[in-house]
């Protein structure tokens, strides 16, 4: 299963990346790779039956901190 996952990502990456390299679109290439590589790593971990923790609790905590910070910037009448 792991070999299949790597093969699918390699073929997809090759098809998508080659035109950007030829056109020298570095920003698009960096953005694509910054999404593709974490997706590949997570898919590989899942294919190896390694349990990946949910990102929801840390994201919820971060969002609450941002909301609290933004609300502290508001004048008292808007709170």
End-to-end gap: 53 Å
Rg over alpha carbons: 20 Å
- Along the chain, the helix and strand elements come as HHH
Helix content: over 70%
Roughly what is the average pLDDT, rounded to an integer?
A: 91
Beta-strand percentage range: under 5%
How does the helix and strand content classify structurally?
mainly alpha
C-alpha geometry: flat
Task: Provide the low-confidence segments as ranges.
Answer: none
Number of helices: 3
Quick take:
The chain has about 80 residues and is an all-alpha fold. The protein contains three helices and no strands. The chain has one domain (about 1-79).
Describe the structure.
The protein has 79 residues and is mostly helical. The protein is built from three helices and no strands. It has helices at residues 2-22, 26-47, 56-73. The longest helix has 22 residues, at 26-47. The mean pLDDT is 91.
What is the element layout, followed by pairings?
Layout: H1 2-22, H2 26-47, H3 56-73
What tags apply to this protein structure?
79 residues; mainly alpha; 3 helices
């Amino acid at each position: 299963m792991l070999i299949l996952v790597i093969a699918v990502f390699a073929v997809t990456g090759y098809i998508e990346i080659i035109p950007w390299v030829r056109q020298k679109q570095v920003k698009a290439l960096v953005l694509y790779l910054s999404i593709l590589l974490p997706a590949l790593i997570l898919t590989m971990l899942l294919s190896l039956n390694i349990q990946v923790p949910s990102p929801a609790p840390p994201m919820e905590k971060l969002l609450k901190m941002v909301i609290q910070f933004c609300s502290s910037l508001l004048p008292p009448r808007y709170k």
